[in-house]
Recover the amino acids of this structure.
């Protein structure tokens, strides 16, 4: 393993596994753990995690999220970093916990130490190489919250130089071909309860998004937000389309 | 679980061809906006400046508007203050009535739309003619704008051709844009000549000079004000900017953001009445001062009405302007509707996936998506929250606060994978209407961890 480990060996990382990954994509959790371990990170999983509270808050019920935020904060109390494979959930904790837990006596400041796993590896661990090989063409799913709230890549709307942390990490994988679709960061239409409440528009957005990923000739749609992938995967299965989805950590951990 | 918006959007999407065309057309405008904005190296700095100037102007309204009035009066204009739509309509009517005006020509004004001016005047027997081509088409079709900058964007040229055959006697089947535009121009020319008074809105009003700035591409505002001696210009009070230096920031942003042009074809500064003519300026509040006191939504007053948030909104592009219940659609319309009357317009709050693209294109940095998020938190207090969403959120919270129960649910969830299709995919499953539901894993991550399977 050739990496320049910039992270303090004593730093303890708590792995945050969002509810839908726990239930539907545990393999993403496993890949996250393996990947962090392989990079020399001291990572542990605080048991019995459930949900960060984002679905309720985005639907308009922040009050329902408060207790969950408190629970989350306590679970990760003893860790220096919280790292999770879901940009949207992570950025919810980062942007909203301060406000949700305002007035609480005991504050563990989850929002100040939480990272999306790509962001964490890219900005904190900074490996110069990875073992992984993935001999496939992948199209990057730049998720809205990943791009516009977490700043994982330069949003197409802004006049700033191009960068993409997902592309940087994927570039460390051997034998891979990386592309991005037309309208590279247009929303795929998941949006939590939006997907149900506005299902016609959400479905159309999803079909349009998958179509643009397919137009690149990619075999896989790869992204840091499992929820976007879950929605697009549902479209792919329904329409029987010749493309697959895969979480970026599974690509970065390929062969581990 | 549905709203008026989601139902109307479903209808809009039934016409697949038109819906795809609507999305592509507006995306093209967004792409043009991206291109020209990237030709300006200081673009992001301009947006910061625009936002800061608006925040300054809107917090110094009294001072700036008084300065404007003083200068406008010195320029020889008449100045009126309207506290609401009724006052605004009455002031316009009284001016027109006092000059025995029967034919009134007006260029595009969202303020007039907001206040229902046309209906008001028509009921009093005054002919109102819209001179912006898109607005004129809609007026003849008895429709409302579906977009604030490109009001007839939802109508294809074939439909316009049919309309012009009836209204202007054009050649049936000839839908050539140039031909149709010429026909409209000829038809409007008569209206320009007949009019005894003209009206414009204003994109900006400059306090230090007392002038109003109108940006158009068709020159229709100038054509209107060049013939009759009587001109009325009205603007919402948040259109005020301190001086011409500030104005320069906005004129550089407006057209680039709205239509992807470096600047509109005409940028007209109306300062004084024409020789022998009269210039009447109406400054309108109509609820704006109320927004000033609202910390979470004050930035809504930064809006330049450029329409960029509509062009980028993935929901607007796929649902059309008429799917919203407020007369301004898209992200800014969702917010302005709620600021106008939440109990009337809460249905639009669902029309957002919180993708945040609108916040990034907005030239004056209105925090559109954050505001929509805030409105969603208000629906419960307003008593209009969706009961099924509430049930789902409450249920999820109950489950998620009980890890044992959560784990039990995860353990049993895979049963769903093998249920008969009809039990899962039915009318109650809005997720399943568009896509397959994900398969639950045989073992959750929690379970795997406990069994020491994560290595």
């Amino acid at each position: 393993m050739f990496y320049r480990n910039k992270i303090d060996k004593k730093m303890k990382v708590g792995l945050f596994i969002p509810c839908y990954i726990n239930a539907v994509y545990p393999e993403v959790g496993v890949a996250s753990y393996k990947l962090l371990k392989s990079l020399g990170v001291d990572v542990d999983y605080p048991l019995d995690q459930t949900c960060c509270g984002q679905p309720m808050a985005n639907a308009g019920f922040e009050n329902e999220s408060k207790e969950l935020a408190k629970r989350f904060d306590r679970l990760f109390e003893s860790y220096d970093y919280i790292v999770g494979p879901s940009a949207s959930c992570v950025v919810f904790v980062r942007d909203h916990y301060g406000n949700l837990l305002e007035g609480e006596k005991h504050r563990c400041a989850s929002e100040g130490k939480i990272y999306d796993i790509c962001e964490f590896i890219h900005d904190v661990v900074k490996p110069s190489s990875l073992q992984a090989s993935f001999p496939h063409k992948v199209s990057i799913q730049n998720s809205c919250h990943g791009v516009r709230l977490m700043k994982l890549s330069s949003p197409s709307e802004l006049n700033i130089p191009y960068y993409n942390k997902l592309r940087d990490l994927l570039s460390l994988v051997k034998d891979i071909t990386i592309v991005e679709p037309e309208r590279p960061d247009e929303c795929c239409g998941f949006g939590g309860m939006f997907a149900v409440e506005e299902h016609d528009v959400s479905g159309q957005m999803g079909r349009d998004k998958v179509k643009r990923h397919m137009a690149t000739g990619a075999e896989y749609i790869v992204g840091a937000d499992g929820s976007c992938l879950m929605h697009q995967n549902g479209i792919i299965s329904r329409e029987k389309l010749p493309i697959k989805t895969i979480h970026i950590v599974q690509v970065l951990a390929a062969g581990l | 679980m549905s709203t008026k918006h989601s139902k109307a959007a479903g209808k809009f999407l039934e016409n697949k061809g038109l819906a795809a065309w609507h999305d592509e057309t507006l995306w093209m405008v967004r792409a043009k906006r991206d291109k020209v904005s990237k030709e300006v190296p200081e673009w992001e700095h301009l947006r910061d400046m625009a936002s800061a100037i608006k925040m300054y102007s809107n917090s110094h309204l009294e001072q700036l508007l008084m300065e404007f009035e003083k200068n406008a009066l010195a320029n020889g204009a008449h100045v009126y203050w309207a506290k609401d739509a009724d006052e605004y309509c009455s002031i316009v009517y009284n001016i027109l009535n006092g000059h025995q005006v029967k034919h009134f020509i007006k260029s595009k004004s969202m303020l007039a739309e907001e206040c229902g001016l046309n209906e008001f005047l028509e009921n009093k027997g005054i002919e109102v003619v819209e001179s912006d081509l898109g607005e004129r088409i809609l007026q003849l079709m008895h429709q409302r704008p579906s977009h604030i900058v490109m009001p007839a964007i939802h109508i294809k040229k074939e439909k316009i051709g049919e309309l012009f055959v009836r209204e202007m006697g054009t050649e049936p089947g000839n839908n050539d844009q140039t031909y149709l535009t010429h026909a409209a121009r000829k038809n409007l020319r008569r209206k320009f000549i007949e009019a005894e008074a003209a009206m414009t809105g204003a994109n900006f009003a400059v306090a230090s000079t007392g002038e109003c700035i109108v940006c158009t591409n068709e020159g229709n505002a100038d054509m209107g004000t060049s013939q009759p001696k009587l001109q009325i210009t009205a603007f919402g009070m948040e259109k005020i900017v301190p001086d011409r230096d500030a104005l320069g920031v906005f004129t550089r942003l407006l057209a680039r953001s709205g239509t992807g042009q470096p600047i509109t074809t005409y940028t007209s500064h109306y300062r004084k009445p024409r020789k022998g003519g009269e210039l009447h300026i109406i400054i309108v509040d109509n609820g704006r001062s109320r927004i000033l006191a609202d910390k979470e939504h004050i930035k809504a007053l930064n809006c330049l009405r450029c329409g960029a948030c509509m062009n980028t909104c993935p929901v607007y592009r796929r649902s059309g302007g008429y799917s919203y219940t407020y007369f301004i659609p898209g992200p800014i319309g969702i917010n302005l509707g709620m600021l106008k009357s939440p109990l009337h317009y809460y249905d639009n709050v669902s029309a957002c996936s919180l993708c945040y693209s609108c916040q990034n294109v907005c030239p004056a940095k209105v925090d559109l998506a954050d505001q929509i998020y805030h409105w969603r938190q208000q629906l419960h207090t307003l008593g209009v929250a969706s009961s099924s969403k509430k049930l789902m959120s409450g249920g999820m919270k109950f489950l998620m606060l009980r890890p044992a129960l959560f784990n039990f649910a995860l353990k049993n969830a895979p049963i769903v994978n093998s249920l008969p299709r009809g039990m899962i995919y039915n009318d109650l499953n809005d997720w399943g209407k568009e896509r397959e539901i994900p398969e639950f894993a045989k073992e959750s991550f929690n379970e795997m961890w406990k069994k020491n399977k994560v290595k």
Observations:
- Confidence is low (pLDDT under 50) at residues 1-5 of chain A.
- The longest strand of chain A covers residues 137-141.
- DSSP finds 13 helices and eight strands in chain A.
